[in-house]
Amino acid sequence: MRDDYHLMETRKTLFKIVGLMQAFIGGLAIVFAFLAFYNIFSIQTMLGATEADIGFYLSVFTIVGMLSVISGLFLLYEQSRVGNHD
Known about the structure:
Elements lengths: L1 H36 L5 H5 L3 H35 L1
Helix pairs in contact: 1-3
């Protein structure tokens, strides 16, 4: 019985870490998309991307980033909701 408790606590902690990391990486993807779009730090030059490519990169990174953030937040929400019922 006690081993099950430790396993559940380890699982909850792991899910919280994964959720935070997923949301953080999604946020970084969104920030990178806008940095590339506005050519801050000459990212377009480093990537060798044309003006036409940047719109595509902005769309892809923003969508993937938002999905990652939402997924990470749902993971955190699920763990906080499950944790309150114990």
